[in-house]
Specification:
binds pyridoxal-5'-phosphate, Aspartate Aminotransferase, domain 1, single chain, five-stranded antiparallel β-sheet, transaminase activity, Aspartate Aminotransferase, domain 2, PyrdxlP-dep_Trfase_major, 16 strands, about 450 residues
Length: about 450
Amino acid sequence: GVAAALTNHETIDLAKRHLVQPWPCAGEIGAEARSLISGGEGIYITDGEGKRLIDGPAGMWCVNVGHRREELARVMYDQAMQLSYNTPWYTMNEPSAVLAERIAAYAPGDLNHVFFTTGGSTAVESALRFMQFFNNARGRSDKKLILSRGGAYHGSTYLSASLNGRPRDRDWMDGADELVVKLSSPDAFRRPEGMSIAAFSDMLVAEFEETVRRVGADKIGAFIGEPVQASGGVILPPENYLPRIRKICRDNEILFIADEVVTAFGRLGHVFASEDVFGIDPDIITFAKGVTSGYFPLGGMVVSERLLEQLRRSNHPTAMYAHGLTYTSHPVGCAVALTNLDLLEDGILAHTQAVAPYFQQQLKTLEELPLVGEVRGIGLMACVECVADRESKNPLQLDTNVGMRIDAHCHELGLLVRPLINMCVMSPPLVITREQIDDMVGILREGIS
Ligand code: PLP
């Protein structure tokens, strides 16, 4: 963009001829037209026509401190001029060590070591391969199955994608199914008719216990879950469900991996949500996205000291965690993350906590609209779920493309929505003000109406 100065038409045409975009349908692969975005500032992005839009999904739940933060652009430049890259195989750099220390200080319990990756999928992949290695090295090589849930999204690499629980993510794709055991989604909106939320929570816990009994604790290495399922439609865990699952995992030596790729770094008003919001202390936390507010691809996992100590004392001291990425501990990414963390600490976390109740309350008013089945959310993430019929909660059929149609209307009115079939997910940059929330909800109301 900055260098080429093409017209919109030329850019879109080049993309249609040469660019493969994520999640394409076979009939359009390599020839898809998508809205061109040419700029961004604060909570706004600018489309190819120069139209200013509220960035409703903050990119992909990632532009947490907002677009065009000069501090982040400057640190990227300064770090690249100081040291643009070093091999993490046999050298190291200062930004990654300092960032690891700061992340460890925020992580719950004894989670005090960080392994950096290139994003969320590679963070999840690293955590699962760590679990496999951990059990191999301590002579428990039968204990490696992974529990994951309906509605989950954990990534697009082979193993992380194998855990995904939204049907259409798996319909046409292969996966390591033999390694995964699936559990129900904790989606309370679609709980059995007439069941209380408490009974629904009991049902999920009973299913978990029964699965551990049936499959055998000696076969299960890990449970992975998003504290709030993000791409599944902002599915909140029913009260007490996560701590109870956490306890079953501890009792059965099943590693509890909290996938905080979306929920960490401010989305719920805290650096990590596991302990501060949900009262759990996982064995491993994965993160990405907000760690650099999307300015640089970076992710990682925070691992418990207790697990590392077990490895150090294992019977196989030369066994190797043969896992690392060229860009592990990237100095530019880590430097960006340090400045991003400064910005979060210097007011953005506090602002998020202050403004979140207003955000939720205003979006909730959309439940007045006949098309809206439920509005749910926490912190600065929410989902407006549309239904064909409120009684049966029948989701609108895919072919009605309601999400896309709402998105198209809202685009006209100045808001980018990220439609998920029948769901509009709202997770704007955390710097959004009350007035901007009013604008966002006003446009969404009109778009849905
Ligand atoms: N985990 C969760 C919870 C996510 O929401 C995502 C992406 O949306 C991922 C993992 C994968 O992250 P990435 O796209 O950075 O590989």
